[in-house]
Amino acid sequence: MASARRAKLERVTKETAVTVQVNIDGAGNAKVKTGLPFIDHLITSIGKHSMIDITLSGKSNDGIVHHLAEDVAIALAQAIDKALGARAGIVRFGSAMVPMDESLAYVAIDLVKRQYQKVELKLERSSIEGMPREDLEHFVRSLLQNLNACTHMVVQYGENDHHKVEAALKALALALRAACGADTKRKGVPSTKGAM
Predict the structure, then answer these.
(1) To the nearest 10°, the Cα dihedral for 44, 135, 105, 34?
(2) What per-residue confidence (pLDDT) applies to 191?
(3) Confidence band for 114, pLDDT divided at 50, 70 and 90
(4) SS3 79
(5) Cys bridge to 117: 26, 34, 126, 144, which one at CB 3.0-4.6 A?
(6) Residue 160 three-state SS
(7) Is the entire prediction scored with pTM above 0.90?
(8) How many domains does one find in the chain?
(9) How many Cα neighbours within 13 Å face the side chain of 29?
C-alpha cells in the first residue's frame, strides 16, 4: 500500500468525549481507556487480532453507560473507515470463524462503502461483566453501522455470554484483517463499478 492508512478522530458531545487514533498497518497495539472495562477488553482484542493499532480514550459527561458505549463504537468505526480511504488495493472481503471454549462465532465482511449489518449474538443474561446486555448489543451494532461496510456477525452457539461476545469480536477482527490486507495482484479499487 502506497500511503499510510492512519486516522485520528474526535467525537465530542454534551454526553461524551472520545478521541481515537488508528493505524490499519500497525502491529496490533492497543491503548484503550473508556471507564467501561469490558468495552476496553473487547476493543483491545479487536486491535490485537486485526493488527490495527488503536489508541482510544473515552469519557462520559453524563454518567450514562449507553451514551459512552455508543459514542466509543461510532468513533472507532469512523476512524477505521477514514483510515481505509478510497479502499484501493485491498482484498475487500474477509471472513473468520472463532471458537472460544463452548462458543463459536463467525463474521463475514465486505469493505464496500455500503452500510449493512446482520447481528445475531444470542445473548441471554441481563448483564455481562457488569454491563447491561442491551448496551453491549448497542455497542456492537453501532460499531458495525459506522464501519461503512457490509457485515454479517453470527454466534452459532454457546452457553457463556462473555465467550459469545468475545468470539464474535475476535472473528470481526480477523475478518477485518483479511479484508484490509493488500491485494498484490490488483491495482485500484476492487469493484467492477470502478468505485466503492
Answers:
(1) 0
(2) 63
(3) very high
(4) helix
(5) 144
(6) coil
(7) yes
(8) 1
(9) 6
